[in-house]
Amino acid sequence: MGRLNGKVAIITGAAGGMGASHARKFIDEGAKVVLADIMEEQSQDLADELGENAIFMKLDVTNAEDWERVVADTEETFGPISVLVNNAGITLNKSIEDITVDDYHKVFNINQLSVFLGIKTVSPSMKKTDNGSIVNISSMNGLVGGAIGYTDTKFAVRGMTKAAALSLAPDGIRVNSVHPGVIETPMLTQGDTKDAVEEFAKHIPNRRIAKPEEVSNMVLFLASDESSYSTGSEFVIDGGLTAQ
Known about the structure:
This is 3-alpha-(Or 20-beta)-hydroxysteroid dehydrogenase. By secondary structure, this protein is of the alpha/beta class. Helix content is about 45%, strand content about 15%. The chain has helices at about 15-30, 40-50, 65-75, 100-125, 150-170, 190-200, 210-225, and strands spanning about 10, 30-35, 55-60, 85, 130-135, 175-180, 235. The longest helix has 26 residues, at about 100-125.
């Protein structure tokens, strides 16, 4: 029996990277999954690969009307939403002197505003299930310092998770945050970056970077009924980096 049998999930930023990994894991465990992203071709290819229980819906996570459309279409296609994974996010490698106001707004809108919009828009549908789970992908930089803009918004996701958890608990909706460290993605394992990442990995207590599937296993746990008494909490997957 699949750990997510009967559950309907929306995953943002699902076209690639960790989002695609989460989607594959959810499908394997019996969920019906909406792949929500702005990358149409890549998302549709993934939906085709995953089969009839996966569907692509175009979503600009910073747009409230887009969220309302996707929630309505999800309910019409699969039924009330029981799981939301707020996975979409970006970072900018700029100093506080170099980052512009427009840069900052972009990071804020995708990393922070989108999480608020997702929780706000999905929760009325989720209340119909009496057993909802919202998983907000923050970062280890939601616990310790890092790049300006990215760190700020990931700390905010952590706080928003706790506020939403308290607000939605009476409706049977759990809200938790996941805090990945360095994750193995194509961007990190190619060319000059690969050497730098391999050198950095020597300073991680576990002596390696994580695979996307390791994050997906945690997201799966939080989406499933196995985590039924966990809400408002942080789940860290960083190989011990923030323990140092």
